[in-house]
Amino acid sequence: MAQKPSIPKGTRDFGQLEMARRNYIFDTIKGVFALYGFQQIETPSMENIGTLMGKYGEEGDKLLFRIQNSGEKAALAPEKGLRYDLTVPFARYVVQHREELSFPFKRFQIQPVWRADRPQKGRYREFYQCDVDVIGSDSLLGELELIQIVEEVYRRLGIRVCLHINNRKILAGIAEVIGAPEMIVDITVAIDKLDKIGIDAVNAELKERGLNDEQIAALQPILNLSGTTAGKLTALKTILANSEIGLKGVEEMEEIFRLLDIVHCTLNIELDLCLARGLNYYTGAIFEVKALDAQIGSITGGGRYDNLTGIFGLPGVSGVGISFGADRIYDVLTELDLFPKELQSTTQVLFATFGQDELHYALRWAKELRAKNIAVEVYPEPTKMKKQMGYADDKKIPYVAIVGGNEMETHTVMLKNMTTGEQKQVTLDELWPIL
Amino acid sequence: MAQKPSIPKGTRDFGQLEMARRNYIFDTIKGVFALYGFQQIETPSMENIGTLMGKYGEEGDKLLFRIQNSGEKAALAPEKGLRYDLTVPFARYVVQHREELSFPFKRFQIQPVWRADRPQKGRYREFYQCDVDVIGSDSLLGELELIQIVEEVYRRLGIRVCLHINNRKILAGIAEVIGAPEMIVDITVAIDKLDKIGIDAVNAELKERGLNDEQIAALQPILNLSGTTAGKLTALKTILANSEIGLKGVEEMEEIFRLLDIVHCTLNIELDLCLARGLNYYTGAIFEVKALDAQIGSITGGGRYDNLTGIFGLPGVSGVGISFGADRIYDVLTELDLFPKELQSTTQVLFATFGQDELHYALRWAKELRAKNIAVEVYPEPTKMKKQMGYADDKKIPYVAIVGGNEMETHTVMLKNMTTGEQKQVTLDELWPIL
Questions:
Q1: Gap between the Cα atoms of A33 and A153, Å rounded
Q2: Which of A366, B122, B178, B328 has the most CB atoms around its CB within 10 Å?
Q3: Does the pLDDT of residue B279 top 90, yes or no?
């Protein structure tokens, strides 16, 4: 036999159980999005190369997958690229369709993205993103709703989480008061790594990026602020007293916490002044969600941006969005054994038969059960009973309805519970309420 | 302002209403698949180029989209291609994972495919396919179940259809008895066009392909066979008396119709000897479904194949499958105005408020309603009432709950039915049963 076929490095096949579990995650998230009036859109897998280039930095440009038609000569520059994330296509969508949309525009989008990264554990060249955004309003209700969505999604999934929150305006204020306002990007890039590399390495990097010892020293008490959220915010008001943007950030955070109070949000939320998020389009609140019972990094993240559509010529449109990391959520649910058991099989009962007449009898029963919305399979041949039972075992089908001559005569089936091994003869009217 | 951004030719953005309608189609189909124990898989968007090349004929090879990493030199031959259909990846999947699968393997798959075709009305470079197959069994129960699935899917969608059925073995038998067994492919390719180009053009093409006048004349009465299915099958038994394969085909059709009888299938089914289906991997029953009330060609099609996995080194595995044409089904539902009206909005009620306190009041109500699984939006600012109502209008939200000082005092909202214009003051307990 020829060599087994394979798939490209960094890509995956999803089998039946994986799909059922992935659908469980996406359906849970979609169910919560719907409660808040977010509606789904989809954009094409390919975008014009000009839409993508220059949007993800120099490194990002290198990670774009470019597309050629087979017909085209290799020398012709390819003019299309595969979607690298859902954010840039969303910005492009909003600008292109702005006349048709009603603002604030609340959309979610669940589609694969592609990156020509070196594949490694947990890093794929094709993976799904799941983004939710509200754009066209600077109301902090946007932040509130996204936090409520995080609370409800993880409550439904059964994952205990902590939401870390910060504000880019506070970070800008800090840069201002330590006398390095122009270094806000360097500062955020460096402190964003705190979790991974530790405070000493961050300080070394800050120095390398041009902060002097005095400035670095001034930064330390701020990064180390502890205590209650209210306490931190009060302290920040003093620290940032001379920074207009910093105080605006504190005010935004106070308002967000006030709104959370009003709706009695019980989510575990931490004002984390070391949270920076690398992406420089964020301008207000920023979030990251971590699972408390699994060591896996951020499973959801996002923030407020004021000018996402500016790159496509529509400036001054404010929005806020978050992205759920489906692959990591999958890993957490697996590690904590939180996937519902019933995802293992969709079929409720398999009919196993001893002959052609029995097979026909089973087909009629199957039709009756399906009309009651019960998922039924009929083993397609009256072959060896062991083989038919093995199929039910493999597919983890909970019940097998065995049909022989005796069952046909008495208008019954012999129902076997595959978990307990119990068998009993039942009529159709007795059968369906069991399933 | 800069030029509006755009998307590549032949691709589409799907807005909220289109997505709701597409999801309605896919969810309906998936619901029926589940009743028969079919389970979902997904394969990567990109396959190794060797998996795809040579599987779709010379023309198909030219329509493959090839992928380059941005980092790679253009001179390097790209080694990956975008999925052209779901059939070849499915065959690759079955061979690659055969040790993990239980056969018969019942899978469905709903994913986009890409073809570098010249874009035109109704033909896209990216479109979804929706395939369902059972592989690893030659039982005609496979054909039966797929026909039952067609019956139920179109019953649920409300589309009246006719299923055309034929058998490639009968076509092979006909080629045999007219004395041109080696021309089975030419004959099927030609008569497959009967619908489009008419009998005269088909006969001309048959002559061009090498059939002589006598053979063409012998073919005519067969293509023109009319009457009941039973009558046609009886006539075929005489016509094909000397063709073993032809008689085998007739026998298969008789058995399929017998099984359909047993389950009291009420689908409109026509044995159509002119149905050929161009794809040469079919070896038994072939199907096409046409909408009775719309002129749009086939909306579902498929058939039995005996050697799909042979191309990947696993010969002799029989299967049967069909593919639902989502874009055409969408067009039929649009033309016949059959989409459920409630797809226009997912949000049941919008809260519109006259001030900050009212907004906070609305947030608390919204939380209560969402806990009852009702989709609620709160307009994010207490701006002009006209603007807030306009938002509800645009999004076709059926109810607006207006909150002013009076409502807060009386623990009520003023509920406006956006269809009738009626308003009434209601408490929370009165509100949610209305929604």
A1: 9
A2: A366
A3: no
Is there a contact between B55 and B311 (Cβ–Cβ < 8 Å)?
yes
Whether residue A359 lies within 8 A of chain B, CB to CB, comes out as: yes
ipTM above 0.85, yes or no: yes
Contact in structure between A345 and A418 (CB atoms under 8 Å):
no
Residue pair A260/A269 in contact (Cβ under 8 Å)? The answer is yes
pLDDT at residue B72, as a whole number:
53
Measured in degrees and rounded to the nearest 5, phi and psi for residue B54 equal 80, 0
How many other C-beta atoms can be found within 10 angstroms of the C-beta atom of residue B341? 8
pLDDT bin (cut points 50, 70, 90) of residue B1 is very low
Report chain B residues whose CB lies below 8 A from the CB of A152.
Answer: 370
**Predicted structure pTM score:** 0.95
pLDDT recorded at residue B121: 84
- A50-109 per-position pLDDT tens digit: 999 988 888 888 899 999 876 555 545 558 999 999 999 999 999 999 999 999 999 999
Check CB contact under 8 Å for B74 and A71: no
Residue A356 near chain B (CB below 8 Å): no
B-chain residues near A365 (CB < 8 A): none
CB contact under 8 A, A381 and B137: yes
The answer to whether B36 contacts chain A (CB < 8 Å) is yes
| Chain B residues touching residue A370 (CB < 8 angstroms) | 35-36, 152
Chain A within 8 Å of B92 (Cβ-Cβ)?
A: yes
Q: What is the pLDDT of residue B192?
A: 83
How far is Cα B74 from Cα A142, in angstroms, rounded to an integer? 45
Cβ A68–B66 below 8 Å, yes or no? yes
CA distance A36 to chain B (A): 6
A116 touching B (Cβ < 8 Å): yes
| Domains (range + CATH), chain A | 16-335 (3.30.930.10), 345-434 (3.40.50.800)
Across the A:B interface, residue pairs with CB atoms under 8 Å apart total 282
| Residue A279, pLDDT score | 65
Mapping DSSP onto H, E and C, the string for B335-388 reads HCCCCCHHHHCCCCEEEEECCHHHHHHHHHHHHHHHHCCCCEEECCCCCCHHHH
Percent of chain A residues topping a pLDDT of 90: 82
The residues in A 191-230 lying below 8 A from B, measured between CB atoms, are none
The shares of helix, strand and coil residues in chain B, as percent rounded to the nearest 5, are: 45, 20, 35
Interval B173-216: pLDDT, tens: 999 999 999 888 888 888 888 878 888 999 999 999 999 999 99
